[in-house]
């Protein structure tokens, strides 16, 4: 079973991070714009501020891991 990663498909930084990981390991990468976040037990806000990693053994959606890598970075609007 492959780890699933949900990311902001409009964010170039997020896409680059996903591409970097995909070059090193097998993951299923899903842009958040193509899903209904609640189907995965997360919110739209989670998707816009985080890369969400769903563990390999992920059955029922209960505890996704949110990697808030970019939370400490200035937003594009701040630039």
Describe the structure.
By secondary structure, this protein is of the alpha+beta class. The chain is 22% helix and 22% strand. It has helices at 12-22, 44-49, and strands spanning 3-7, 27-31, 51-54, 65-67. Strands 2-1-3-4 form a 4-stranded mixed sheet. The longest helix is centred in the N-terminal third of the chain and has 11 residues, at 12-22. Mean pLDDT is 75; it is low at 60-64 and 66-73.
Proportion in β-strands: 15-25%
Secondary-structure element string: EHEHEE
Roughly how many Å apart are the termini? 40 Å
**Backbone shape:** globular
- As a whole number of angstroms, the C-alpha radius of gyration is 12 Å
- Biggest β-sheet strands, sense, barrel: 4 strands, mixed
Mean pLDDT: 75
- Total of helices: 2
Within the largest sheet, what's the order of strands? 2-1-3-4
Helix content: 10-25%
Low-confidence stretches are: 60-64, 66-73
Q: Could you tell me the number of beta strands?
A: 4
The secondary-structure class comes to alpha+beta
């Amino acid at each position: 079973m492959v780890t699933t990663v949900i990311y902001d498909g409009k964010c170039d930084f997020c896409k680059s991070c996903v591409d970097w990981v995909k070059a090193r390991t097998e993951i299923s990468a899903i842009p958040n714009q193509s899903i209904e976040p609640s189907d995965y037990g997360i919110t739209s806000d989670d998707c816009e501020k985080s890369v969400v990693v769903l563990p390999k053994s992920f059955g029922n959606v209960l505890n996704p891991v949110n990697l808030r890598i970019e939370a400490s970075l200035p937003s594009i609007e701040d630039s």
